[in-house]
Amino acid sequence: MPLFLTEPARATADLGLLLAAGPLLRRLPGGDGHPVLVLPGLLADDGSTRLLRTVLGGLGYDVHGWRLGRNVGPTALAVDGMRERLEQLHHRHDRPVTVIGWSLGGIYARDLARRTPHAVRQVITLGSPFRMASVDQTRVHRAFDHYSHLHVERRSLPLEGGPLPVPSTSVYSRYDGIVHWSCCLETPGPRAENIAVQASHLGLGHHPAVVYAVADRLAQAEGAWQPFRAPGVLRPAFPRPDLPASAASAAAA
After folding, report:
1. What is the DSSP secondary-structure string of 34-52?
2. CA 192, CA 164: separation in Å to the nearest integer?
3. Distance CA 39, CA 107 (A)
């Protein structure tokens, strides 16, 4: 409960950290111009991702919001609109698109990668509970259910399993007050990883460690994905990532 109640204040502090990290942002790697689609979280719209998109656009990427208004769940407008948006960007650039999704937006991003892997270069999720096994693992399930009569897709719990057909990075925080960090964990593999940060849920789109990690992932050459390695001076900002329960049990065995 304390993490949930302090989310707005901590998100504001995360923004302050980004402003203080101005010199660091100027040293982020430049982009190759490939298209990036950023999907907002539940009850949010493109305004919530504007700062992240502005930073990434300044690095040289062709960055886009979803242009579908407020995210109230998998409505027909959202489901069809995201697919069309992805295909438009893919055809316009003749290159696969990096899809970044914040919270619920990350679940959408993973769906897009499964359905249209030819159009997706990689998926980066920010505090996305794609392994949620119980509604008790999120503080916003009632808000989601409030709009369920508009949803055209229904999901059973646990939400999903198995690796994506494209590289995937899950950025998560043990200080997340909206979703439990454990349901944001990817099973590490040759093209799948978790990156731990120390951010609030509402601050994941502008915390400097998150921005650095996202920029690092985007800067990789297409087809040459490698796991994230924080430089020595920044390692305190990136705690050692956790393993999902299944992977931890296997490692212990």
Report:
1. -EEEEE--TT--GGGGHHH
2. 8
3. 10
Angle at 179 between CA 203 and CA 82, to 5 degrees: 75
What was the pLDDT predicted at 244?
A: 87
What pLDDT does 161 receive?
65
Q: Is there a contact between 62 and 33 (Cβ–Cβ < 8 Å)? A: yes
DSSP3 helix / strand / coil % (the chain, rounded to 5): 45, 15, 40
Residue appearing with tokens 């359905």 = 115
Residue 139: per-residue pLDDT = 95
Strand, coil or helix: 118: helix
User: What token pair was written down for 225?
Assistant: 């994905």
Per-residue exposure over 22-44, b if at least 16 CB sit within 10 Å of its own CB, e if not:
eebbeebeebeebbbbbbbbbbb
Given a cut of 50, the residues of the chain with pLDDT beneath it are: 248-253
DSSP H or E stretch at residue 216: helix 208-218
Beta-sheet pairing, 168-173 with 120-126? parallel
For residues 169 and 121, the answer to whether their CB atoms sit within 8 Å is no
* Per-residue b or e along 75-105, where b marks 16 or more CB atoms closer than 10 Å to that residue's CB: beebbeebbebbeebbeeeebbbbbbbbbbb
| Domains with residue ranges and CATH for the chain | 2-252 (3.40.50.1820)
